[in-house]
Write a structure and sequence with these properties.
- The longest helix is centred in the N-terminal third of the chain and has 22 residues, at about 5-25.
- Helices cover about 65% and strands about 0% of the residues.
- It is built from 4 helices and no strands.
- It is an all-alpha fold and about 120 residues long.
Length: about 120
């Protein structure tokens, strides 16, 4: 239903990430993508030999270490653990409880007033 919004935000996010990468490391950042260029998936028969594949993986991991600090890695790992825990809780709900939770969430979102919308008391 909202696929067009997802596509729009994905393109904008990708462009922002590319711009930031070019600012931080101009010599290592990928060239700017053109609107007409689309990435092609490698052909299944064009698989790399095992030695080249391992070298490519090692090269990518070295590049990631330059951009991702240990603190950020810890934050991401913690966020993923919290997300998995929340997903498990939601997966364990029965259908009736899940329906009530969804209804409550929708009602809360529809009826929430932002502080700017609330009338000021005099």
């Amino acid at each position: 239903m909202f696929g067009f919004l997802k596509d729009k935000f994905d393109k904008e996010a990708r462009a922002a990430i590319d711009r930031r990468a070019r600012q931080l490391a101009p010599d290592k950042a990928p060239p700017p993508a053109t609107a007409t260029a689309t990435p092609k998936a490698p052909a299944p028969d064009a698989a790399l030999p095992e030695g080249e594949r391992q070298a490519a993986i090692a090269r990518m991991q070295a590049q990631v270490k330059e951009f991702v600090s240990p603190e950020r890695q810890a934050l991401i790992a913690n966020a993923m653990a919290v997300h998995r825990a929340k997903q498990k809780i939601l997966a364990d709900l029965d259908d009736e409880s899940r329906a009530k939770l969804v209804a409550m969430a929708i009602t809360t979102l529809l009826h929430s007033d932002s502080p700017a919308d609330k009338p000021k008391k005099k």
